[in-house]
Amino acid sequence: MLCTIAVLHNSVACAAVRVPAIFGDNMVLQCNMKVPIWGWADAGENIQINFMGYIFKAKAGKNGKWFLKLGSYKAGGPYEMVIKGNGQQLLFKNILIGDVWVASGQSNMEFGIRNEKHGAEAIANAHDSLLHLFTVPIATSLQPRQDIDTANADPLVGKWVVCSPENIVYDHKPWQGFSAIGYYFAKEIRNITHGPVGIIGTYKGGTPAQTWVSIEGLQQDPPFSTYITAHQGFVDNFRTASSTYPQQMTDYHVALDQWNKDYGNDYTAAVKQWDADVAKAGEGPVPPHPKPIRATPPAPVPPDGGFNGPANLYNAMLNPILHYGIKGVIWYQGENNGDALADAIAYKTIFARLIEDWRRQWHQGSFPFLYVQLANFRAPAKLPAEGNWPWVREGQLKALALPKTGMVVTTDLGEAGNIHPVNKKDVAVRLALVARRVVYGENIICSGPQYRSMKIEGNKIRLTFDDNSPLTIGNGLMLKGEQPRELKGFGIAGADHIFYGAKAMVINNTVIVYNEQADKPIAVRYNWADNPPGNLYNQAGLPASPFRTDNWLMP
Q: 58 phi and psi, to 5 degrees?
């Protein structure tokens, strides 16, 4: 007698055959590709999958793992799937065929729909039976995991759910609900394809890029030796660190409680007042961000290195879903790599490595990888070249050299006093514009002007922008903002490498930049600050990316 089970979690009580949690009721399988599926059973066990009227067979290896590919299917559904082993079977219902996207990164991707500017309206209207969501539980691991751990997860996490007001809002601290950007992007894709869409959210706030790269990726030439050494240190010292960590945490909480009593309340009030002052100041000068009288006690590092440990999130939150059929990835991360200048400058290397590593490990070729360039943040810029984040943005810009990548500029969508700007809908709409062009082949303008070349003309520099295709130029450059129409955000420098605020104007679809203090200019930078004022757009209303014409190694 067969034992039929609808599997939603990692284990099957009365069946040896099982599959990872990414497979289950309500899953969306990628259309127009041979669908990969895998799992475990007794060694040598014969596996049979019944789907869409066909039977597919596999045999578990000596390690108990089996893998096969189904057919290639057009968008549609719902369907059912039966997986049979030796006397057991698994039954999955309400399966859709459509486009599957992975939403990943740190806190601005994790930012929940309930916290978003338009969230209340979005939640009320979140009735869409053809949009299904999957959230990967937050976890870390020193070794690659074969499956995700759903034991302590929210009931709506670690399984596919149908989009509804109830299912997109759940306990996901510090946010509430599914990724706002992920949700809005998925809705836009639904409008593009008019077919089913699945979105897989795997994200964690406060995490650097290197924790999302595999050890193999970090070891690629040239190797990231610092990260590799750090990872090996956590592996070697894990047992010892695990024995002392509980007491360290107890001591930390005691110290933190005392800090909150002595300094925390005053500091919280000061930050609240600073936020109000920034909001009132607009583009005017703002006071420096307040600092506590005494720094908060540092939290002890978890035995495995925690969420900052190299490869830790790749191992726990990406490896378990590798090989699942996908259309592409959307990514929003970089803030943590911008904390230190050296890390910000190195972002161009680690970010490109991450994209290449994911593609290599996924075994689905150069799938589309679309991402968000860092938004504006902190006090408005006082100098034409300052801060760490411009170097992260440059790394993101350079990643466009990789095939099937796309980037959206958001230096006009951030907030000076909030590293988590609440408007995520416009970010997702811009991502969808890029998807329409890069992924779905629409002949539309999807990005703002991108710098192409410069020419020194006496005491001025003429800048040209990419106008070889409708991808970026948008039928002409334009200024955006209130009168008087002054082009902002440009800096110009001579041989001394000192950047002066520059005057700039649009002439014949080029930008002329100059300043009398740099009478022999050799370089220009645009929007080269954490919170820049630039207002150069194209006629499609999309902002230009920050850029520099120099290749100077030091800031």
A: -150, 170
Least trusted range by pLDDT, from 8-22, 53-67, 254-268, 346-360 = 8-22
Q: What are phi and psi of 42, to 5 degrees?
A: -65, 145
- 360 closest CA partner among 214, 221, 144: 214
Phi/psi of residue 535, each to 5°?
-135, 35
Please say whether the beta carbons of 518 and 493 come within 8 A: yes
Torsion of CA 254, 256, 262, 263, to 10 degrees: 180
> Which H or E element spans position 149?
none
Q: Tell which of 248, 266, 300 closes a domain.
A: 300
Over residues 186-199, mean pLDDT: 98
Mark 469-481 as b/e (b = at least 16 C-beta within 10 Å): eebbbbeebbebe
Question: What does the alpha-carbon distance between residue 461 and residue 515 come to, in Å, rounded to a whole number?
Answer: 10
Angstrom distance (rounded) from CA 537 to CA 508: 15
Q: Which residue has the tokens 């930050």?
A: 271
Q: What is the mean pLDDT of residues 330-335?
A: 98
- Asked if residue 296 belongs to a domain, the reply is yes
Encoded tokens for 302: 């978890």
Q: Which of 249, 278, 300 is the last residue of a domain?
A: 300
For residue 178, give the amino acid letter.
F
- What are the beta bridge partners of residue 163? 128
Would you say residue 152 lies in a domain?
no
Question: How many degrees, rounded to 5, is the angle at CA 163 between CA 440 and CA 434?
Answer: 20
Q: What is the mean pLDDT of the chain?
A: 92
Count of structural domains, the chain:
2
Type of residue found at 10: N
Q: Is residue 455 part of a domain?
A: yes
The amino acid at 206:
G
Angstrom distance (rounded) from CA 98 to CA 33: 10
Report the largest interatomic distance among the alpha carbons of the chain, rounded to a whole angstrom.
Answer: 88
Strands (E), 73-120: 76-84, 88-105
Residue 476's pLDDT band, with cuts at 50, 70 and 90, is confident
Flag whether 148 is in a domain: no
Taking the C-alpha atoms of residue 229 and residue 217, their distance in angstroms, rounded to an integer, is 14
Residue 175, CA atoms < 13 Å, CB-side half-sphere: 25
Distances 212 to 198, 331, 363, 399, 467 between C-alpha atoms, Å = 22, 11, 17, 16, 35
Which has more confidence, 180 or 152? 180
Full residue range of the structural domain in which residue 513 is found: 451-548
Helix pair 180-193, 425-438: axis angle to 10 deg: 40
Tokens of 425: 């809908």
Which residues, 6 or more positions from 546, have their beta carbon under 8 angstroms from its beta carbon?
373, 390, 393, 394, 397, 409, 411, 525, 526, 527, 528, 532, 534
Report the SS3 class of residue 175.
strand
Is the pLDDT at 555 greater than 70? The verdict is no
Helix (H/G/I), strand (E/B), else coil: 346: helix
